[in-house]
Structure formats: C-alpha cells, structure tokens
Amino acid sequence: MAIFSKKQEEKKPKAAKAPAKKAEKAEKPSVPAVVKNAADSKEAVVSSVKSVIVSPLITEKANAAIEKNNVYVFKVTKVATKISIAKAIKTQFKVTPVSIRIAIKPAQNVFVRGRSGTKSGYKKAYVSLKKGDTITFA
C-alpha cells in the first residue's frame, strides 16, 4: 500500500503549482495583431489578378450560353472569389461583368485500362455581361 500513498503525495504538490501558473499567464499582456498596410494589400490583389483566370472553358454548353445569354465560362483558381474574378475580367478583357456565378467541379475517381486514378477537379466561373459587350478569345 505504500506505493499508492506515494502517488497521492506527488499529485498534491502538482495541484498546488497549477494555480501559480495560471496567475502568471494572466499577468502577461496580450500581443496585438499585426495589421497589414492598405497599400500592400492592394498590390497583392493587383499582382494576383492576372493569375486568377486559368483559361476559358470552350464546350458546346458554354458556346450555347454565350449565344443565348451572353454568359462566358472560365476555369479559375481554387482560391478565386467573385470579387477577384470581377477584377480580373475588368483588367484583362476591359469589360464590366453584370454578375458572376461560381461552380466547383469535384475530383472524380476513374478506372481506365485496368488502372484506377483520379481526374482533378476545378472551379469555374460563369460571367454574365451586358447585351452589347463581348469577349473575344485569341
């Protein structure tokens, strides 16, 4: 029974030390968060605008959307937002989008020639323009 009594004695001093640590933590002042410069964030947005649009998606469905509703489809990076896509469209094609819708195509598991693999997923943006505006792809 002497083994159990030693463990209990060891636990008691540890419990006494714990409140002292909490008091030390309370005394430490909190570190303020680092705020970025407004100019730095604007430069980061401008430099990333060129890399937002990966490529236009040219499919039968996309071409029908262009002819019928004046909606263009682009493959965009996975971190792209509606605002960054709108800025990229304005700078690259000099056209103001009316609305932007985003769809995420998930990765697919495929089985081809006896081997399993995956098709990578991507994010695409549906950009609608005014009736008179057009985008030409080179």
Note down, in words, how this protein is organized.
With 138 residues, this protein is an alpha+beta fold. It has a domain at 40-128: RRM (RNA recognition motif) domain (Alpha-Beta Plaits), CATH 3.30.70. It is 43% helix and 25% strand. The chain is built from 4 helices and 6 strands; from the N terminus they run ααβαβαββββ. The longest helix has 26 residues, at 2-27. 11% of the residues are buried.
- CATH uppermost class of one domain: Alpha Beta
Share of helical residues: 40-55%
- CATH homologous superfamily title of one domain: RRM (RNA recognition motif) domain
On the 0-100 scale, what is the average pLDDT? 79
Can you name the CATH architecture of one domain? 2-Layer Sandwich
Could you tell me how far the N terminus lies from the C terminus, measured between alpha carbons in angstroms? 87 Å
Radius of gyration: 29 Å
Strand fraction band?
15-25%
Q: Say what the CATH topology of one domain is.
A: Alpha-Beta Plaits
Low-pLDDT ranges: 28-36
What is the molecular shape? Answer: flat
How large is the count of helical segments?
Answer: 4
Question: Could you outline the blueprint of secondary structure elements for this entry?
Answer:
Elements: H1 2-27, H2 38-49, E1 53-56, H3 60-69, E2 71-76, H4 82-93, E3 99-105, E4 108-112, E5 115-119, E6 122-128
Antiparallel strand pairs: 1-2, 2-6, 3-6, 4-5
Summarize the structure.
The protein is an alpha+beta fold and 138 residues long. It has helices at residues 2-27, 38-49, 60-69, 82-93, and strands at 53-56, 71-76, 99-105, 108-112, 115-119, 122-128.
